[in-house]
Structure formats: structure tokens, C-alpha cells
Amino acid sequence: MFKLKLAAIAVATLGMHAAGAAEVEVLHWWTSGGEAKSAAELKKMVEARGNKWKDFAVAGGGGENAMTVLKSRVVSGKAPTAAQVKGPSIQEWGAEGVLANLDSTAKANNWDGLLPGVVANVMKYKGSYVAVPVNVHRVNWMWVNPEVFKKAGAEVPKTWADFPAAAEKLQKAGFIPVAHGGQPWQDFTVFESIVLGVGGAKFYEDSMVKLDPKALSSPTMEKVFDTFRSVRKYIDKDAANRDWNLATAMVINGKAGMQFMGDWAKGEFTAAGKVPGKDYLCLAAPGTEKSFTFNIDSFIVFKQQGADAPKAQSDFAAAVMSPEFQEVFNLNKGSIPVRSGVSMAKFDDCAKTSAKDFADTAKGGGLVPSIAHQMAVPAATTGAIQDVVTSFFNSSQSSKDAVAKLAAAAKTK
Ligand code: BGC
């Protein structure tokens, strides 16, 4: 259950700041090398507008830890100014009655005109902006070290059917085929790319977004679990609990051949001075070339006390949507700008591919929300499905059993 039962807490007790302080406290989970560089750009721009940045970073990829900390902060009446929250959870927070309204900032800066309609809708609660979007991340990527594949005489897999032969060759040549961190959200991230690659975008939509029981318990889903199990054979024995950026480092330094991860991984390659197309390849995860799993980072803003709070919040939101921020932040973060009117000239080929595929799939089909990154279904459902996925990955459960558990978990509200 998400419900915090906050109605009883007087909003007046939320986020007490002395008048005149103009402090902007921002909760986020951007703590890896590439992420921290990106967050630093946000701090710079907020401070350039005359506010004081108070960093509230909660380490833990995927944001699970951050969400736990956020809930306890809000319940105890100390909501931060803004917090990294995305997807359907924005509606859940909206329903708690604790969010501030950004409509005047949005109107003054023409957000409705600059954002795709589907994105704007996610940022609004009951028709009013309560959140500001930062970027568009693509999740269905495969990060490849081409040198490793060359040394092993292996072909980069284009489909999941190609995957075992390639992984076998890498392993025989002494490499770790798949760089992975054994954390539930990372397992789930790999899983959703397999759902997409094995079943296609419609199957993904039916099973992971509409939660259609037929799709969830289909033979195709059994095949997805079989494929997922086959990936397990090709990760190393030290994967348990490894952070995602350390897994990316294994691809960067030539220990491992590939990683299935969203394009925040590109932030790590960029921070290490690596060049796409030369030092590493960004390719769609097997079988997913024509699809795009989107993950849009955004910040919700909380009602605050203090006369200077609305201006500070408006400054923060306007900074996030400014073309200058959208460019520099996304160059570091690995994502692409979420609003129109930002030049892509400085972006690399991975970002340009992403931008093109985002536009093409939005028009022609294949654009789907990432379930592992909280874009598809409510938080409680996401959590229940993630539990099934991760416990399958870490046990010898049969695919048949897992499929039955998945269909049951999808009913969690
Ligand atoms: C967020 C990214 C972040 C990644 C790893 C994702 O859910 O959208 O911004 O870099 O998790 O922490």
C-alpha cells in the first residue's frame, strides 16, 4: 500500500524554513560518477538564481532507498522542497494532498507547448502541474566492449536466440559475458528487456502495462523466464549486491563483454572519457531495436511554509526546464532532453539514436513505459512483480511456477 494517510498532518508543518532562507532541499539518488556530475549542474543553476542548494542524496540505484527515506521524512512533517519521483507515483503523492502547484511557472514558460502531451499528463495531478520533468532515459540498451568481443571471436547478439552462443564464446575466452549487479531493480531491468525482446512491444504492453492475466501466464512469458535464467549462467560469482556503476566499470575496463542497463550507464562511459562507436557500443538490447522503454526522471515539489518557498520552487522548476539545463544535464547523464527546442548538436551518436527512436516509436508504435523504473504501474504492483522476478533469478524455481506467481503478483494494489 502506498497510502501514507497524511491527510491528518497539517500541511503547515511540512518543510519549515525560516523566511528569507530560500533554501532548496532536493532529494535524489544520483550518487555514481556520471550522476553526481549531472546533479552538480542542477545545483549550479539553482544557485545561479539566488537560492541555496541543500543536497539530500540517498544512495541506491533505482531509487528504492530514496523512496523509503522520502516517505518517512514526509510523515514526520519534514518534506524536502523537491524530490525525484516519477511515473504513476506522482499521482499517488498528489492524492496525499502534500504537493505544491507549479501552474504559474508552467504557464509563464509554456510547458504545455514544449512537452509531449503524454509527458505533461504524467506531471499533472487533477490538471495542475505538480512535477517537472528532467529527461528521457531509454532502458532497453546493451552496452558492449567491442574489443572484448573481438578478442573472443564473438558476434554481438542481435536476438535473445543469438545470446547463448556469444556468451559462451566470451566465457571460453576468459571474460565475464554479462556485467551485472545482483540487486532486485537490476534483475528487473534485465528482465523487462527480455520481455520486450522475446515477446515484442505489444506483448510488453499487454503484460507489463495492462497486466493482462492471459499475457502474464502465457507460454511466451515462460520463454521469457527461460531466457532470463540463461543470462544467470553468464554473470560472475561476485555479482550479488554489486552497484550498477561498478558493473558498468567492468565493461569499461574490459573485464566483461556487455551490460543490459539504461542509458545512465552512458554517463559512466562519458565520465571515464570513453567515446561511443570506438571504446564502447550502445546497441538496443537483443530483439528490441524497434522499441523504446522510456524512463522519465522528474521532481515533485512539496507544499512548504515560508514566504520565500514559492519563488525558490519556481526558480528550481524553471531551471530544470530551461534549455541550458536540459542540454548540460543530459550530456552528463546519458539521457536526452525531454522538452523541445534543445539543440542536439553537442550530443553523441547514442543520444542521437535515442532521440530518433523516441520520436519514431512515439509515432509508429513501440514506445512503452519501463516497469522496472516505476513508469508503468503503481508502486505496490511494481514491487510485487519485482519480488517474483528477483526471487526466480536467485533460485531454481521453474519458469512455470514463476509465471503463476507473476500473474498473482500483478493483482497487488
Ligand atoms: C533513474 C536514473 C538513475 C538510475 C540509477 C533510474 O531509475 O531514472 O536517473 O540514474 O535509476 O540509479
Provide a descriptive summary of the structure in words:
The chain has 2 domains: 7-137 and 296-364, D-Maltodextrin-Binding Protein, domain 2 (3-Layer(aba) Sandwich), CATH 3.40.190.10; 138-293 and 370-409, 3-Layer(aba) Sandwich (D-Maltodextrin-Binding Protein, domain 2), CATH 3.40.190.10. The protein has helices spanning 33-48, 64-75, 89-95, 103-108, 111-114, 117-123, 146-152, 163-172, 184-209, 213-216, 219-232, 244-252, 264-271, 309-321, 323-333, 349-364, 379-393, 399-409, and strands spanning 23-28, 52-57, 82-84, 124-125, 128-129, 131-133, 137-138, 141-144, 176-178, 256-260, 281-284, 292-295, 298-301, 367-369. The strands form 4 sheets. Strands 2-1-3-13-6 form a 5-stranded mixed β-sheet, sandwiched between helices. Strands 9-10-8-11 form a 4-stranded mixed β-sheet. Strands 7-12-14 form a 3-stranded mixed β-sheet. The chain contains 18 helices and 14 strands. Helix 1 (33-48) crosses helix 13 and helix 9 runs antiparallel to helix 11 (219-232). It starts with 22 loop residues before the first strand and ends with a helix. It binds beta-D-glucopyranose (BGC). Residues 29, 35, 61-63, 137, 264, 295, 297, 373 line the site of beta-D-glucopyranose.
Structural class: alpha/beta
Largest sheet features:
5 strands, mixed
Tell me the CATH architecture of the largest domain.
3-Layer(aba) Sandwich
The low-pLDDT segments are 7-19
Strand order of the largest sheet: 2-1-3-13-6
CATH superfamily of the largest domain: Periplasmic binding protein-like II
Strand content: 5-15%
Unique bound compounds: beta-D-glucopyranose
Count of individual domains: 2
Mean pLDDT, all residues = 95
